[in-house]
What does this fold into?
Amino acid sequence: MKKRTFALLLAAVMACSALAGCGGGNAAPETTQPSAGPQTPDAQGTQLAEKQEIQLHWAAANFYSFDNNANYAAEEIQVQSHVLEGLVRPTTDEAGNQILAPAGAERWDVSDDGLTYTFHLREYYWSDGVQVTAQHFVDSFRRIGDPRNAFDFASFIGDIVGGEALYTMDTETASDADIEAAKEALAVKALDDTTLEVTLANPAPQFLSKVGATYLYPVRLDVIEAAGELYDTDYTTHVWCGPFVVTGFVKDNSMTLEKNPTYWDAENVHLTRVTLINIDEVSTQNTMFKNGELAAIVPTGDYVQPYREGLAGDNYSYVHGDFPGVSYFYFNRGGNSTSGLMESQKVRLAMSLAINREEFTQVVFDRYYAAYGFVPYGVQNGELTFRDDVTEPLKAEFDAYALDNEKLRALFKEGMEELGDTRELSEVTITYICTGDTAIKRQQQEYWKNAWETALGITVNVNVLGDSSLFREERNAGRYDIGQAGWNGDYNDPMAFVEMWSSHGTSIRYSGWTEERAAQFDTFIDRLNAEPDPAGREKIFAEAEQWIVCDEVAAIPYMYSDTILCVSNQIQGMTFPFVGPRFDFSRAYVVA
Amino acid sequence: MLKYTVRRFFEMLLTIFVIATATFFLLAAVPGDPLSDRADRLPESIRENLYRKYGLDKPVLERYVITMKGMLHGDFGESVRMPGYDIQKLLQETLAPSARLGLQTIVVGVGVGLLLGILAAMFKGTWLDYIIVFFSVLMISVPTLIFGLLLQKYVAGEMGLFPIIGWPSGEELWFGGWAYTVLPTLSGCFSYIATYSRLLKTSMLDVINQDYVLAARAKGLSEPQIVRRHILRNSFIPIITVLPMSIAFALTGSFFIEKIYAIPGFGRYFIESVQSRDLSIILGQTVLMSIVYVAVVFLVDILYTLIDPRIRVGGKA
It folds into this structure.
């Protein structure tokens, strides 16, 4: 599954090119990691401003519901992570490393076999004075898995014993009693008010990262029942347990958060009021940021370069960090590809090696990173950062071919001959489907067409569909050879990127994949499920990635996402978690 | 007149029914549904349950019958994209800001436009006329979006005369908070100024050459009297045709202005609900707009007879 950050929402709407960005430019981005994490004002010896209020842009139209189990959009997570408190909180430590900090759970024990998690909750309260208990988490886990609710992120309980059986129930055939029984059987137990025990079906270290997602934050069934139909839309029917409470909401326009005086760590929450307001026009955001009316801005498109080069003034810090997203091409593997050539591994590999990723990211976007693997920078596997340890699998192959047209054409031709196709390369036409007719999308489409035609001597037919629905229709009918997509990890683990190619994943519908291929890939998942040790997992992930991009060439990864933010120097202590909310302002403060 | 009114009323119902049916089937014919973007990346079992939850797994005709039955009771159904919202609730929360913006825009735009139109006609061929014509062409050629952004950047951002974004709410929803409304109103009114000044000028020039104006002049009436009593009244026929449409259009929101100034209005839903194939909201909007327009057309027909007694309805000559 995929989190809809607004950059990737674009990908959903216009699947052809996954990320918006700017055109032109020349300098490659300098990489600076997000600044060091929460520091108390005292530690820095700074003076707090009298008025602790900030304003941030927030794409309000993507906020659909106050129900944290029902959420699926980044803008919803941005709010929920500040008004609710789950077991753990994704944030950064003082050195800038991504961590899962103890939050509602003071501490937790994991059994030696990696199967049983016991969370010890701290004493903390909802805004109506009721204590947050382990049962509220049990209710949340059962509710999100209830197939009658059809919540998008139901599969987040899939690692738990009974989880998959629950959320995959067919609501047509299963009776209410069956479903209730399956909810009871879910291995999440409140041992007492402050002890929560979760039993996993397999040792799945990524489980802890999922628990950090707001979908699995606690819920109050009595509040939900009392609110009835208004639970989705009316904040006054809700109670809160996070650093802030909601005090105002104008649909598709703005939300006001105020400090929660009963929050367990209220002494470290300094902001008294945060206004999240929808400002659609980037130019308006720019005007407001320059006037000091916005605490931070996420520059996009043509605004990236001036902000990077300091042309927008000197009263802000420019943050450039990793982001768990990958853009890739996939193939029509349904046996009905337009050219009839997509069943050849050599043809697919030739297409993957024929593109110059470095040049593309630089010329077209002037940001992002060239991708020779499927798992982006910064993704962690326990204590290990995957990309730091594992060389990108396509790199060696790419260097061996070195964009040599003769060698690439020979490889492509060899693949064709294996399929019994004796045509000349000049007679081959590959159909590439995509959406989007903005300048930046056109530029990308032209770039790819030109790259493949020049390197391989074939013809590339670019079929630009009017919108994502038309695109899907064309894709599902199999009238293409190659398509373009983007994927964001919902939790911080390489599993979030490899799982999509398994039988449980979404590539069967989303990326030209077939059940047969997925079943082949399942062997990696089975091995991962039996391996609790991060070092052992890393080896298996590396093999799986090698299979995806080299041995099988299921996809042509070409670009990893990044994140660019500018934060006013007046605001300190803001962090930028890798997954979860884009801004964590729960411990931020305004300096005098 | 009564017979005419009753006939028109039933025609109105028929029109709305036809429009609703056409909208439903056109949307059904277009690929995609409100869930497809979201469901594309979900595991199969969750996807199926999601479609079932919203009844989108049912055949088209069955959905049509369900939708039409609901509409008869004023129930357009819950939005799929925005859980907990139906068209009534959406209108209740977002129509007021749009309506105020629309009214202010119309009052300023049409008022100034008519005034300039009169001046241009009366001083035809002079520099004043040319300036008005020049600016009218300019105003109608530059999109609202550009005016909005420019005014915002310079007048609000650099000079700091007005707030950059925002809209009065609470007690100030209808009166008060004027500072917020100045730039949005200005950005919106240019196209009305241009349209109405040109329309009135052309119409007045037609009338000025009529025989009865000559007769009035021969009677020795003063120029202002001629303009007020004879020329203006007769020149207003085309204005009456266009004005109600403008009002209906303006009241339901402006997509661009609301976007630029972060106004919590209704305009954005015309685009968003179609993009997301959100059937209940689209149907609600279509029917609402049809009612407004059909009613306006009816009203215009009545107004004609008041302004110009020569126009009669009901078959009697």
User: Anything to note?
Assistant: Chain A has 21 helices and 21 strands. Residues 1-37 of chain A have pLDDT under 50 and may be disordered.
